[in-house]
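Here is one chain, start to finish.
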Amino acid sequence: MFRESPQPEVPQSFYPNIGQSFRLLIRLILITILFSIPFGIVLILNERYGIPHGQLLISFLLLLVQVASLYIVVRLGLKRIRKFDIPEYRVKFNREPFQVILVIAVMTIAASTVISAVSSLIPGSDWFNRYMSGVHQPNFFLFLSIVVAAPLLEEILFRGVILEGLLKNYSPAKAIIWSAAIFAVAHLNPWQGVGALLLGLVIGWVYWKSNSIIPGMLIHFVNNLIGYIAMINATDTNESLSDSIGDNLIYGVVLLVALGFFILTWRWLNKRWSSPQAEPAL
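Its structure:
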């Protein structure tokens, strides 16, 4: 008897949205804290009594905590996506040609130089510098943690799960900014958070344009490798790029050249990816 008026379509919501992304981050933090208890005990004992090969053990435990925590949260995120949204969802590992990889590597070196300069404007606190000097003593396990595990697992979580969901729910700009902010908060300190925010914006844009997680992994790998090499050669934990160069004029020229290379490589990639062709995930 009564004609039903057509109901307006409710846009489909994909996992994760902004709130769900932060809940994933909270889970990551809580799991990391739980797994870090043995790590903290060894760190304290090593500081007080000097455990044989204590620094190597600390780096090994740090690697285990990092890999286990990220793996669990990645599995939770992917399970949720496949159960309720896209049963066949797979993280996009689409390949890029060699010239694109080369340009991305150059862009990363330039971006890392500029980001390092911005991050150095925030002086590190004494307790943070002491913690970094106590934990970040170069060795094989620390290399695996910083240069291998972080680029691989963090990119799968923050771009392959979180940013992918945000891009399905919001505009690219909003999705990239929020994913970068979440990536920054995950570092749990402002001294690394500023750099993570800026790097997250770059990687987020690259992920959106390339439709692949591989370029972001490369950026993350090159950036962390630069940081690891700088850490090996630094005489002080809080040493900045400006301190390493020593001459303000040369430092300014280096920053200008880096900024120029970043703009040139960004424009080249933007032109190449202006009409991205989505490829099936491997």
